[in-house]
Amino acid sequence: MTDFSSNPEFQPVLATPHFCLEVTNPESQREEDKYYRITGLNSAITCLLDGDANVLLVRQYRPSLETYTLEFPAGGIDDGEKPRDAARREIREETGYASRIFSLGSHFHLMMNRTNIRDYLFAGLIEDTAETAMRESGIDIEWVSRSELLQKAFAGDYLQLAGLGILQLLGGELELDMWRASDTQVVEAMRGRLDRESY
Questions:
Q1: Residue ranges with strand state E in 25-136
Q2: Which domains does the chain have, with CATH numbers?
């Protein structure tokens, strides 16, 4: 069982291999004195584009939502693993592609009110779309244009809020409007950014 917490003020209420529910002041008789949070593995999430500025998504079944979802490649960061290494591993496992990526900021939190999980965000460009490794079973890949992704988001067919946030951060990093810039502008800016810092 992974020990997710590092704060002795929080005591585990429920521990699973995937997350832990913790509480402060567990001995208090008054519920309003208690504060609950969810801890778990930090995660790495990556926005990957191809040479035509299409976005690579993975489709997988999410039991919590009881449906298949479209998402950016992502996953938990193992103990002792660097976030960038975790991102590259998850990309390879979920999509079969090798990748050069760069980080977007330090780290972020998706639900600051109830979890301390850190989300590390990355972006990269896949110019050779021949898969280099076997993919995990149960995960399909789908390439969509940026305009298709936006349409899917408005239609409720793309639900991963973090992915939309990554595109906005990426646009700020590249000094482009990721929804309106031409494919050529996006790919050239990505190549320039990758040349400055990636592996």
A1: 35-40, 43-50, 55-62, 67-71, 74-76, 100-103, 119-126
A2: 10-40 (no CATH), 43-108+120-196 (3.90.79.10)
Residue 12 contacts residue 5 (beta carbons within 8 Å) = yes
Cβ neighbors of 106 (< 8 A, separation 6 or more) are: none
Mean pLDDT of 33-47: 91
Predicted confidence (pLDDT) per residue in 15-24, tens digit: 998 889 989 8
Q: What is the C-alpha separation between 182 and 119, in angstroms, rounded?
A: 29
Give the position of tokens 């990309």.
91
Write the pLDDT tens digit of every residue in 121-133.
999 999 787 777 7
Q: How confident is the model at residue 82 (pLDDT cuts 50, 70, 90)?
A: very high
Full-model pTM: 0.89
Q: How many CB atoms are closer than 10 A to CB 107?
A: 15
- Report the alpha-carbon distance of residue 147 to residue 5 in Å, rounded: 40
Cα gap 103→162, rounded to integer Å: 14
